[in-house]
Amino acid sequence: MALAETGVEVVKGNLDDRASLDRALAGVDGIFGVQDYWEHGAAAEVRQGKLLADAAKAAGVGHFVYASVGGAEATTGVEHYDSKGEIERHITSIDLPATFLRPTFFMDLFRDPKYRPEFIWSTLVSLMSRDKPVQFIAVDDIGAVARIVFERPTDFMGRAVELAGDEMTVPDAIETYRAVFGRKPRYICVPLQPLTLFSRHLSATKRWMNEVGWHADIAALRAFHPGLRTLRQWFLEVAAVDDAPSRSRKKAA
Fold first, then answer.
1. Between the CA of residue 29 and those of 24, 47, 92, 99, what are the distances in Å?
2. What is the pLDDT of residue 143?
3. Does a structural domain hold residue 12?
4. Which of 124, 204, 241, 247 could potentially form a cystine with 77 if both were Cys, beta carbons 3.0 to 4.6 Å apart?
5. What is the pLDDT of residues 197-210, one digit of tens each?
6. Residue 2 domain-assigned?
């Protein structure tokens, strides 16, 4: 295992098994907690999140950093936002020393192997009004901020921090992609009105993103994490990785 090879002690735990969590958390001072709504659904996500928090409280963990989502502080009607809000409220109710990190739209979704990039672009194009900004965050920057939070507990304990590295409309994001890759991303404009009639989740997502949306203070975030990526910087990193095999082939030829 890659982590073990770097000297990290790897301990097995099961988010559905309290006894295994109690064993894994013995002597642990800090926890970064994240559950997967998309794999397990809202009910399982909430159950696992609460179980981990309860185990952390019992183990006397000094700092619980919970990976939540922007918007979790209010009832949004978006199931995978509201599930995280329920976990946040439970963490607060048991007086667990914690920081909530609330990321916005993952830049990495444009490269996630679970999804086709065309699907992600099509969803954004179809959901968002042309003049409504979207906030984006690189997943690596969530980890970087989490490290800072653990290193500076007195600055972040008891706080909720919404995370974004950039903000722009979807048309501007498309133009940013074109400027880096020399072409527009592939997408289709899906007529969502018929779909939203049958999908409460999709309808709630569209309404919340356009009427409320995210409000991360990007300037304040960059003050303590200057390396926070913009969408253009992230695209450039992706382009450099994608171009590496072709450069290798040219050298070999």
1. 12, 22, 18, 14
2. 97
3. no
4. 204
5. 446 777 888 889 99
6. no
